[in-house]
User: Fold this.
Amino acid sequence: MEIPQQAYWAVIPAVIRRDDRLPANAKLLYGDLSALTNETGYCYAQNEYLMGLYGWSDRTIQRLLAALETQGYIRIEQIPGKERRIFCGMSVTQKTPDKIVGRGRQKCRGTPDKIVVCNKDDRYIDNNTPLTPQGESSSRYQPRWFDAFWAKYPRKADKVKAIRAWDKLQPNLELCQKMAAALEAQKQSPQWQKGKQYIPLPSTWLNGRRWEDEFPEGESMRPAESGGMVEDRGLQKW
Assistant:
């Protein structure tokens, strides 16, 4: 069986993620269907391939596909003697499916394709950096991590810009640990002790990777106390 070409990223629109009528696995399956959708606007993966993704049975795949089709999130066409087509998009009930830009495959290592789905209900922007709406009070990327960073940062100004910088940076756990250690050390430095006007804005600190700053001669960075930075099972925070 030919293996369909699959995009690096999977798209699960908010309206599907929040639809309580769908089983959780149906939402997950939709993500894989969207990743397999090519420039023609449909996915041709058969149940055998979909079963192998998560070890589900054929009956389970049929049930999940039926749930997605019932709610209008996919449209299945079975042409006699030809491949099955699963149209995947927010306008599948129309004759013309949503426009998908870019083939569903990774062109080169480390640079995944970008998929753009355009419709009046949900719009996905061809941009790897999440956009933070004006007035947004929390991050889209690991909001609890950001909230903890914001609580620890001694100068609380231009929060929206700080959120945008955080969402652009998207620090993993290892980087968060480095940032936390540097931040605790810098808070004790003579420069920061002079007053808040000598402390960079949070967005400046994030965009400028100021945790990598070298300390003046005679000063050193001391390891930060854990302060609840690491939790079990990947639920880490500052």
